[in-house]
Amino acid sequence: MLPQTVKVGAGRTSVDVVLSEDMIGLEDVVVTGYTTMKRKDITGSVSSISADRIERIPAYNITTALTGIAGIRMDGGSIRIRGTRSRNASNDPLIVLDGIPYDETLASINPGDIESIDVLKDASSTAIYGARGANGVILITTKQARQGKTTVTYDGFVGAGVNNWGSLDVMDADEYIAFQREASRAAGTWHSEADDAKAFFGIELANMGKVDNDWMGKYFNKKRLWTSHSLTISAATDKSAYKIAFNYKNEDSRYKNAGHDHFYLTADLSHKVLPFLKVGLSSRAYYIVKNDKPDMFNQFLHMSPLTQTRNEDGSYNVYPFGDPFVKNPYMNESDDVYKDKTEEWKLFLRFFAQIDLAKGLTFNTNFAYSPAITTTTARYRIPTSATWPSCTTTARPTGSGTTCSATNASSTGTIST
């Protein structure tokens, strides 16, 4: 219904309002796979997302824009439209980009380059796309150049990530000392402060009353920064149209020297060769650099507040407990200790021709080529720090309740297409 404003004057005791129907939503154009239809003429189950909705959500991934759409369920990082239909086969929906099945992930598509998203949820998806559409279909239509003057558009945003430190409160030094003494007393190894050597490492004894290090706080309280920058140049005439778009965005991490950098490049060109024939080329390139670090959350939980993260000279305290089997988790921030760098190149090329056979009858043909290359350029732990234990608890001098396993990893490199 259309909103209305009615003035209420003095002495008026009743107000009669007749609402008028809003026909705008019914006139929206929806892509159904083989044609476009007005929403009021659709009989199947279709959900649509416009470019305005996507732009209102500064998302790094199109998946975020799909959250909350009726009939779409997020299962971890996967999308489910028609539920989980198989335990062994894939349950992912078919992605169709500008009329061509797209075998890559949604993350490789620039959200700012999307004009609309239509989701086919019922059996009509199978009728159009066969067995590949059995799990539902996501139809993505990208933006095209509009007729008129050359247009230059910039879009960008900056965001900061702040964690709620109050959601995880670990022991401070005094609480840790009391807890460790009580645990050793229950085990029968501690009866007074004279038995502290049985419950604490020598370094912990030396730091009592001097050190209260919040290992977990340093990890959680780190501010993360996200940025995104998009630049688009487009123009169109009666016969020709072109569009070039570039987008860069980064994903920061809690760890130093870790994060992901995304690069998107789009180039669209079309030309009307004959009055009834239009040909074109659409290319999309995606490049991502991943610098990953291992998740040391569990290790931070087991670090003693009586130990230091760094030495007085600012260098890492390699063995906070003085135990060679328990190393400083923050050492992983240094690329000299741990480095896992992965690069991915993905290219999507589409050649198309459109022939107007008669009024209201158009023949379209497409040819697509989509190569992908993934390279792990560096994945290593240098020999000086090659042994990294996995411990279920922090080792005590008594040696009870501790299980540690050490692993070594060497440099590897893989290329897959």
| Total number of beta strands | 20
Mean pLDDT: 78
**Largest beta sheet, briefly?**
9 strands, antiparallel
Gyration radius over CA? 30 Å
Estimated share of beta-strand residues: 35-45%
In helices, the fraction of residues equals: 10-25%
What structural class do helix, strand and pairing data support? mainly beta
Total of helices: 7
> What low-confidence regions span 5 or more consecutive residues with pLDDT below 50?
382-417
Seen as an oligomer or otherwise, the chain set is single chain
- Secondary-structure element order, N to C: EEEHHEEEEEHEEHHHEEEEHEEEEEE
Distance between the termini: 53 Å
Element layout with pairings:
Layout (H helix, E strand, L loop, with lengths): L28 E3 L4 E3 L7 E5 H6 L5 H5 L6 E3 L2 E3 L13 E4 L2 E2 L12 E7 L3 H6 L7 E6 L5 E14 L11 H14 L15 H6 L7 H6 L3 E13 L3 E13 L6 E16 L2 E16 L4 H5 L37 E20 L2 E9 L2 E9 L7 E4 L12 E4 L7 E2 L1
Parallel strand pairs: 6-9
Antiparallel strand pairs: 1-2, 3-8, 4-5, 6-7, 8-9, 10-11, 11-12, 12-13, 13-14, 14-15, 15-16, 15-17, 17-20, 18-19
